[in-house]
Amino acid sequence: MKKVIIISYAQPLLLGSRLVSSLLKKHSHEVTLLNLNHYHFLIEKVFSDDFIRKLALFCQDFDAICFSFMTQESSLLIPLVVELRKILPKLYVFGGIHPTHNPLECLDYADVVFLGESEYSFLQAIENDFSNLHELDNVGYKDEFGKKIINKIASLKNNLNELPYPDYSIENKYVVSADNTIIPVTREMQKEFFKQSGAYYGNFYSYTTLTSRGCPHKCSYCANLNEIREHGFVPKLRFRSVENIIRELEEIRALYPEINFFLFYDDNFASRKDEEILEFCREYKKRINAPFAILVSPRFVSDFKLSHLVDAGLRHLQMGIQSGSDEINRSVFLRNISGKQTIQAIQIINKYKKYFTPWYDFITDIPYDTLQSKRETIRLLSKIPKPFKLQIFSLVLFPSTSLYNRIKEEMPHLLYKYSGENKTMSKLNNLNDLNYYDTVLLVAAYTPNIVLRILSSKVMFFLFDRKFFSPVMKTTIASLRMINRATHINHNKIRAIPK
Ligand code: B12
Ligand code: SF4
Question: Phi-psi bin for 217: left (phi > 0), alpha (psi -120 to 50), beta?
Fold first, then answer.
């Protein structure tokens, strides 16, 4: 039996770490999960020397000290690893999204890096005291001459149904409290997290899971597991069986009976075939019968799928549109989804508005945007029937995505500005230098469509797209935000289920 610890600094969902933990535990190893964050919200932290000493003491008995993280957390965790290693020389292992995309850089700090779906490689490495790394897929390490080696990347050979469910036991789970003490996660804390996740949608306890891996699209800015392009590898979109999903939901409800909402965080839940959606809806309604939320992309929305999903309990839907310009979507984002397809999907979604207010996501701060593409985006927005909620995100370039590589070639001076580290992507959280276009995007969900059409005109851009208006626009958006909060207009909360 080996003892490993997986450390993160994130929201407590920790799906990747929980999955790795379940697999290792199934093979009789002991796994501890430590979230350097508090149990239900993100606290900005700088790790003091005192805390690093406490952490070293906590970690001293493990065979491997592992870290799982995203790019945003890398600038906080990597310096921590550097300091920890000075007082606790051990085997340091990195896994998760950031190491997957930046294995060479990560090997400056870790002894071994696991890339992509690496849970089985990790298990084999653990069982062989890391002596077999040269034989394993999805691994990066340094050879005896210090040369960095990245092995072949592969998908899980196993079918997704063979994977154990995420580890939600409270055994060996720890968090760091606000006063920097490492404390065990209690059942109450875990329940509180489900409650916090559900509060987003109403008075719910929400459980999040993924029913598939991969995505049918290959957007140029996307840093998820299906984009390990640097290594010439693109895993296929794979689905778990309906029975396997429903059993996971039943098991978590047996453990936490208060869970009464489910979020399927698949990149594109609607990409399943019609028959599978039908089977899912039938079983879900019969055995789970609770409201749920999904993410979709326009190409996969159909009346057939939505009517069954709504009947089964769909009460929240989020769809990525990104730009109203076909040119930007196709040649910059490599998303082969036209404005026409998007409008068709919206028309279908619109039929189900009495069950939910749809959320649509757009990306701004696109260095390739032109007056024309911006006008097209506002015009597309003017065709969407109200109400809807908009999420406007600033473009972020995650290293090793194809858009990152393109901008590195064509506009290298922008790389820093668009860096994925320490960045909140929501435009609402970064109102400095707000321009006319972004202001229109931010108010579009509340602006009558006829007015949006006027705002999309060349004249309006000519008159108002000027730097000296920026402070006025910032003040306007900040005030509207306050009014919005004060009046409690909340599109997150799901509606009562109509009879
Ligand atoms: C669920 C989710 C969230 C949830 C929960 C996040 C969490 N911390 O758990 C929420 C909504 C909170 C969230 C927030 C954000 N997210 Co998010 N999120 C996802 C999503 C949809 C699924 C992640 C997931 O659970 N995957 C499933 C697990 C199984 O995959 P995994 O974590 O990669 O783990 C596997 C391997 O990497 C490996 N592994 C993982 N850890 C370890 C450790 C070891 C030791 C080993 C050996 C292996 C290993 O094994 C696992 C099983 O194969 C992904 C998109 C996607 N489809 O992956 C985006 C994604 C991870 N998110 C992303 C981003 C940008 C964010 C935000 C920064 C957005 C923002 N600005 O607010 C925040 C960050 C918040 C935070 N710090 O926690 C990006 C990350 C890009 C990057 N390079 O970092 C992704 C890839 C989306 C995208 N397409 O670009 N997110
Ligand atoms: S649709 Fe979403 S998950 Fe899929 S490739 Fe595009 S950005 Fe990534």
Answer: beta
Residue 209 to residue 165: CA distance in whole angstroms: 10
| Complete DSSP assignment for 373-394 | HHHHHHHHHTTSPSP-EEEEEE
Give 339-390 pLDDT, tens digit per residue: 999 999 999 999 999 999 999 999 999 999 999 999 999 999 999 999 999 9
CA dist., res. 93 & res. 291, Å (int)? 39
Residues 152 and 226 in one domain: no
Quote the domain boundaries for residue 341.
187-491
Q: Which helix (H) or strand (E) holds 286?
A: helix 274-287
Tally of structural domains, the chain: 2
Lowest mean pLDDT among 220-224, 234-238, 253-257, 395-399: 234-238
Separation of alpha carbons 214 and 238, rounded Å:
7
Of all protein residues, whose CA lies closest to atom 22 belonging to ligand 1? 265
Q: Whose CA is nearest to atom 64 of ligand 1?
A: 70
CA 378 to CA 18: how far, in whole Å? 42
Phi, psi dihedrals of residue 249, rounded to the nearest 5°: -65, -40
pLDDT at 474: 86
Give how far Cα 372 sits from Cα of 324, 327, 444, 489, Å: 10, 10, 18, 33
Q: 323 and 363 in contact (C-beta within 8 Å)?
A: yes
Q: Count CB-CB contacts under 10 A for residue 367.
A: 14
Residue nearest to atom 63 of ligand 1 (CA): 70
Residue 216: φ, ψ to 5°: -70, -20
CB 215 less than 6 A from any atom of ligand 2: yes
Q: Which ligand is nearest to the CA of 111?
A: 1
The C-alpha atoms of residue 242 and residue 279 are separated, in whole angstroms, by 7
Q: Kindly report, residue by residue over 13-71, the tens digit of the pLDDT.
A: 899 999 999 999 999 999 999 999 865 555 566 788 999 999 999 999 999 999 999 98
- In this structure, is residue 413 part of a structural domain? yes
Percent of the chain with pLDDT over 90: 71
Probe residue for ligand 2, chosen from 213, 219, 227 as the CB with the greatest number of ligand atoms within 8 Å: 219
In a domain, 182, yes or no: no
Atom of ligand 1 nearest to the CA of 119: 50
Q: 219 CB less than 6 Å from ligand 2? A: yes
Q: For residue 315, give the CATH number of its domain.
A: 3.80.30.20
Q: Which atom of ligand 1 is nearest to the CA of 69?
A: 41
